[in-house]
Amino acid sequence: MAALPLEEISVQLESPNLRDRMVALASLRDVAPEDAVPLIKKVLDDESLQLRSMAIFALGVKPTAESYPILMKILETDPDYGIRADAAGALGYLGDVRAFEVLARAFYEDTDWLVRFSAAVSLGNLKDPRARQILIQALDSQEVVLQQAAISALGEIEDVESVDNILRFAESDDWLVRQRLAEALGHLPTPKSVSALKYLEKDVHPNVAEAARISLKRLEEKSDRA
Question: InterPro entries, from UniProt (predicted)?
């Protein structure tokens, strides 16, 4: 299907029909960021939360000088926790290291676990080692999904010193936590990581065992290249 002209997309984004606006926004997928962002901005305050969520995600994958400040403002001021969580996630996709402070603040200060979860995931996506203390703290959260996010993010930032902190989750009752641990250890080359992965390779849940196998192979390949 041929791409719609930008003028036509612009008009369609103002349609009273939600489906028309959603189709128009989706059609910006292959449009250059400089051309797409001004059009994405047209629906950032749409009455549909679903469309707003789509627009915020679109900003995260369309880096321009405007993308970061817009997402930062949404994360810090929007009254809807789902929208704030979307903005936190989009900042991770954007990969702008300036987002570290605003994501750290959201993790510490936002009252909703979903926003804090998105912030933790995005701190991992930024691969900024300054996130270590925040993520170590998140391991003690009462929310299992926050523990999962923190384990994954510690792997993403390749924080080898955190291995002792995350190994306690090898006995977690939640198989997703064990899977996240197996995946993270594949980025943390230490003898303890290898031992833990050999243990997790025998896990009763196939997803955990497979993740451990993949991570062991990754560590072996990394060792061979060293």
Answer: ARM-like (IPR011989), ARM-type_fold (IPR016024), PBS_lyase_HEAT (IPR004155)
Going by C-alpha positions, the residue among 188, 186, 176, 187 that lies closest to residue 212 is: 186
Superfamily the domain 169-226 falls into: Leucine-rich Repeat Variant (1.25.10.10)
pLDDT in tens, 120-178: 999 999 999 999 999 999 999 999 999 999 999 999 999 999 999 999 999 999 999 99
d(CA 127, CA 118): 14
At 167, the amino acid letter reads L
Radius of gyration, alpha carbons of the chain: 20
Q: How many residues does the chain have?
A: 226
Q: What is the pLDDT of residues 39-88, one digit of tens each?
A: 999 999 999 999 999 999 999 999 999 999 999 999 999 999 999 999 99
Residue 116: which of 152, 90, 95, 143 has the closest Cα? 143
Kindly list the domain boundaries of the chain, sorted by start residue. 1-64, 67-157, 169-226
CATH code of the domain made up of 1-64: 1.25.10
Question: Can you name the CATH fold of 67-157?
Answer: Leucine-rich Repeat Variant (1.25.10)
